[in-house]
Amino acid sequence: MRTNLTGLLLCLPIAAPAIAADWTASSCAARKVGLAAKAVNCRLVTEAKAAKTMSAPAFDSCDQKFLASSLRLESDERASVCPTSGDGESVLDFVRASTAHLAATLKDVEAMSPCAALQAPASGQRVTYGRGDDGSSHLGATLQFTDNGDGTITDQVTGLMWEKKKWVNQAWYPATCNSVTDPYCADPHNVNTVYAWAAGYPGRASSYDGPVVTLFLEQLNNRCDRDVSVACASNADCNASGGACGFAGYRDWRLPNVNELAGIVDYGRSIPALDPLFHNAGCAAHCSDVRSTDCSCDSNTIHWSSSTGGSYPLHAWAVDTARGHVELANKTTGESVRAVRGGY
Predict the structure, then answer these.
(1) Which listed site, 148, 211, 220, 298, has its alpha carbon 20 to 30 Å from 161?
(2) Is 178 buried (19+), middle (13-18) or exposed (0-12) by CB count in 10 A?
């Protein structure tokens, strides 16, 4: 199958032009474009090498070089003229998605539309019940996910990175996490643990201050990746456990908004209505290594989003991953959670 790559290539950063020694807003932007271009080149070269050996590409070196260079640029006192700041992670997320789409198109795994990262995701519907319905038109960017081998899954359409879940044996399913001393709170990746969105009197609280924030997100962002019992502010705090500070080395995990959460639903599947990368055979065997590509679980229940109901401040929007329903739930009830990071 032949694919016109012209539009897709326009989505990728290009090499920066030579700039003067004196910094201006435009020259700083050019420097940032140049760093992004190097990141694109590094990732595509890595992808090409992996394709030759039929192995999984290891992008860690490319990503770390870009983030380090971006940090050095913004640490320069002349960077005060830059039109943007603190956007290294966001730029890298876009680079990841764009290069992944280009690599997939060149491999012809599934034909990607130009600039697919800017399209709304397709529904996943595969069966048609009449001409013109969703099953026959297949509109939107094809759902495509990648297990990164570090406990995360990247959505190649949106660039969002999702937390994976695993099975933890316990006496009760599901179990509500209420306090730091609660044994059900020990592992934030436990698919069998549920959290309240808001703290306070049941049915009467609306603030985003429940265990989903104070415990779940706290463990993902401010604890060591390999030992969530250890609080951290930098990677140096996690030397003893051998991991980074923050889950998978990131500290910007959050609850998805309702559109982001609904965006991973595959309406061509059910129980769960998700790509198999979010729930595979390993879960049935009670797998416990979230970093293994053979281990991924979903609770097949309601999952919290960070979005509050417009006229219902005591309720937040949630997505039932069993069948893809979007509904309102009282903020003080315990529901499943799946964290996300990134986005454009």
Answers:
(1) 211
(2) middle
- What is the rounded distance in angstroms from the CA atom of residue 244 to the CA atom of residue 238? 6
Q: Which residues contact 225 (CB under 8 A, 6 or more apart)?
A: 238, 241, 243, 244, 245, 246, 247, 248, 249
Q: Which two tokens stand for residue 123?
A: 């529904």
Residues in the chain, total:
344
Per-position pLDDT tens, the chain of length 344: 444 444 444 455 444 444 445 788 888 888 889 999 999 999 888 888 877 777 777 888 898 899 889 888 888 878 788 888 878 887 888 888 778 777 766 665 444 444 544 567 888 888 889 888 888 887 888 899 999 999 999 998 888 999 999 998 776 667 889 888 888 889 999 999 999 999 988 888 899 999 999 999 999 999 999 999 999 999 999 999 888 999 999 999 999 999 999 999 999 999 999 999 999 999 988 999 999 999 999 999 999 999 999 999 999 999 999 999 999 999 999 999 999 998 65
Helix residue ranges, H only, 194-329? 211, 218-222, 258-262, 281-284
Prediction pTM value = 0.69
